[in-house]
Amino acid sequence: MNSKVQNKIAIGVLYGIAGVVVLILLALVGYILVSGLPKVSWHFLTTPAKAFLKGGGIGVQLFNSFYLLILAMLISFPIALGAAIYLYEYAKDNWVTSVVRTAIEILSSLPSVVVGLFGFLFFVVKLRLGFSILSGAFALTFFNLPLLTRSIEDSLHTIDDKQREGGLALGLSRWETVTRVILPAAVPSILTGVILSAGRVFGEAAALIYTAGQSAPALNFMDWNPFNISSPLNPMRPAETLAVHIWKINSEGIMPDAKAISSGSSAVLVIAILLFNLAARYLGKRLYKRLTSA
Amino acid sequence: MFMSSDIAKPGTTPERHIVQPTDAQHPTVLSTEGLHVFYGDKEAIYEGDLKFARNQITALIGASGSGKSTFLRSLNRMNDRIATVKGRIMYRGVDINQPDIDVYEMRRRIGMVFQRPNPFAKSIYDNIAFALRLRGVTAKNKLDEIVETSLRQAALWDQVKDELDKSALALSGGQAQRLCIARAIAVKPDVLLLDEPASALDPVSTSQLEDTLLKLKQHYTIIIVTHNMQQAARISEYTAFFNQGRVLEYDTTSQIFTNPQVQVTSDYVSGNFG
């Protein structure tokens, strides 16, 4: 067999593999959307769930998912940013750095159910935070931190070392160089990473079942005082998210339209994550264009 | 490992020939004494004692790996994190190679321009102005004035004066390099170190850059590393020839190019090596 034929076969096989991956994705997403979309309506998206009757929605769960996501990001982003800056811009290549890196790798490979159970024992029980948004946000931070740190580190890595030298040569300190030269240039890529990790956090269920809880008490959307128990903003209330809701309906849902609600919720979840991914690409490209071209 | 017998046939030419500048009109502003640079255990610079004359251009020439860039980067301590630099670097009577020197202030006096243009991902205006703002220059008219003077000195003003708020990343290579020079001189340095600033530029941009440097030497002491021997001959007053981590010959540029004393220098400047 000559090398030209070999090459053609190799290309064919590779195309085939890539095609299979795309087909699996399309089939999955297609099935979820086809079976779930008919259920999705404004009513479905805004009304609270019902435990025994038909016609419940996912309004509270949807709100919980976003609120939890924002809280988790507020906690994990500064830590991840600091860790990434330390690791990439400051740390020397020694055993301390390598211990930190190994810790991050291990943390990122922990099964999320383990993170959830740890969160239950530590935040919910030990720290007496109870099943609450705060416990969930901390658990999600554990889950999110390693991935986000990695992604910010990768973003810093894409900025040429010549930029760092340029800053230092002007008499800027290392800190000024990082904050005034490197971070602004890395913003598009950091933002992309943040949104992509938001997508993962949004769909996370296992880490939340034991921390944020599986109940969604009725909320009064007129009450924005975070200290009131029925306020949507209260971080100490239990909060079932959309992903947890899907899991719960399928394992113990007793409402008559459980299957339809599960399908509808799945479709909403998938669409939200798709939107996160598309937004990441779009915003990243747009920002990069604004920064680089005139 | 190279032996002294490799560089000179005994009895014919000297092994080293160092003539420090002694022009009273251009006193020494920067000098190195007993400079040794190590990368880990590997010694990159063995001997590099040079004096640099004020408001003159000094060229550092030599083959790749001869240590000229390492030497240059040691002068404003850009090598601090990668190499160990021993010896003294005297700048206006102060040894700046000491731990307690304010490195950031020192680098404002001894600026640097790199081989590849490295404009920041900011507007042309901010590339120059932002380091000044960090140093407390905030008055708009003052900033405008410094931006304009710096761009004029770097011979870029006429081309960019109408698009100062455009991204600097859209500039051509030659323009970007001149912006980097403008950025470096905006913080009012005393000495300007240039590490092969023209090697990524086309001949036209190179010649414009050389004109700019010739004008800039009225205000600054310039030390330039170059691979281009014609360039060294065209613009510099003094030339140092580096070979395998040592300065083998240092003299006025005309001496180095017309009457080199060391055989290796002679071979190198006449293109007769190997």
Total number of distinct structural domains of chain A: 2
Order of helices and strands of chain A: HHHHHHHHHHH
Shape of chain A: globular
Our estimate of the beta-strand percent of chain A is: under 5%
Largest interface: pair, residues per side: A-B, 21 and 29 residues
Tally of structural domains of chain B: 1
Q: What is the number of helical segments of chain A per DSSP (H or I, 4+ residues)?
A: 11
Supply the helix-strand structural class of chain B: alpha/beta
Report the CATH superfamily of the largest domain in chain A: MetI-like
The overall strand count of chain A is 0
Q: Which quaternary structure do these chains form?
A: heterodimer
The overall average pLDDT of chain B, rounded, is 88
- Helical content band of chain A: over 70%
**CATH architecture assignment name of chain B:** 3-Layer(aba) Sandwich
* Count of runs of 4 or more consecutive helical residues of chain B: 11
The CATH superfamily label of chain B reads P-loop containing nucleotide triphosphate hydrolases
Strand content of chain B: 15-25%
Instruction: Calculate the mean pLDDT score of chain A and round it.
Output: 90
CATH fold type of the largest domain in chain A: MetI-like fold
CATH class of the largest domain in chain A: Mainly Alpha
Pfam families (chain A): BPD_transp_1
Family (chain A): Belongs to the binding-protein-dependent transport system permease family. CysTW subfamily.
Protein name (chain A): Phosphate transport system permease protein PstA
InterPro entries (chain A): MetI-like (IPR000515), MetI-like_sf (IPR035906), Phosphate_PstA (IPR005672)
Keyword list:
heterodimer; A: MetI-like fold; 11 helices; B: 274 residues; alpha/beta; Rossmann fold; seven-stranded mixed sheet; 35% helix
